[in-house]
Amino acid sequence: MSAFKTIPVKRVIKFILLFSVFQLNVYSQLKQDTSKKVQYLVIPVLFKTPEMGLAYGISGSLSFKTTHHNDPLTRTSVIQTIAFFTTRRQNIQAADGVIYFPKEKYILLGQISHSYFPDKFWGIGPNTTDKPFERYSFEQAYVSPHLKKKITKRLFLGVLYEFQNVFNVSYKLGGSFDSSAFFGKQPYKVSGAGMSISYDSRNITFWPEKGIYFLTQFTDFRKEFLSDYNLVKWITDLRYFKKIFKDQILAFQLYNYETFGNTPLRELASFGGPNNMRGFYQGRYRANNMISFITEYRLHLIGRFSTCAFGGVGNVYNHFSDLKSENIKISYGGGLRFALLEKEKLNIRLDYGYSNRFNQGLYITVAECF
What we know:
By secondary structure, this protein is mainly β. The protein has a single domain, classed as membrane protein fhac: a member of the omp85/tpsb transporter family (Porin), CATH 2.40.160. The protein contains two helices and 19 strands. The strands form two sheets. It has a 17-stranded antiparallel β-sheet that branches. It is globular and about 60 Å long.
């Protein structure tokens, strides 16, 4: 099925989401009758997306407090895992999470993953045509720890490391993938270290009702870190949340991704998929840089159920001259939410997105887009 053709809705909506929630409440009695609670959820999933076809696997979430009492200064820590296979021979195993240490003096974020992913290639740049795509495949291992230290009440300074190993790359010799000019056609590793500055005044991590989140970080990949390519990656992420009426929230995100140097294919900027510009095939457009602006309207319905509507504009670009009005990409859609953890407002998220470039997609995952 070609991702650039209009997909019949009834065909895409033929999906099943099977989930069961298994919670373990572990209490450890301490002095003065305090307790520590751990919640663990297991979610079998079966779903269909444009990128993966039919996917099936299992997801888990572990939430806990690092303090032994009801500390309002320390948010709930969450570690999420997922493993699944698809009818297009893809498989992914991943874990990521955030741990808030007491009084949030330190915050540890991290991600580790392995994937084998047959994918599609249309070319590099913001104006690649909807010609027949070319298939290629690769295997990837990824690790990225990120430690933040509190400087003031809401300001954090961080250090981070990123490692990516891309191997078993396969593509058609003499095809468009082979003839296009970009780095990363052969197996490679990138390894780099960096720093970050962030500000976080959100009242809740997963479903903020108010507050600002700002992050800017850079990662320097170089041969001294055993990287095959020298490049710098700079990310800026600004989010704003405002409660406008009872149970109604407006959320905004401005996201910018920049690379400088010899950037291999899987480090290039792209958008699409479940977390940015929903409605576009993930990786349909790739270039050195990207920018996007997304707005969401979130509404609590009843009990554990909520809904949302979203819209976004953005583009990938190699030069600022690429950011012309006729090149702008638009996405929009809506979705439903089911709260796995009511207090922390950790949701199963079901979104359906459309784009102005004849892409559309169904997304089912855990936690919000931003």
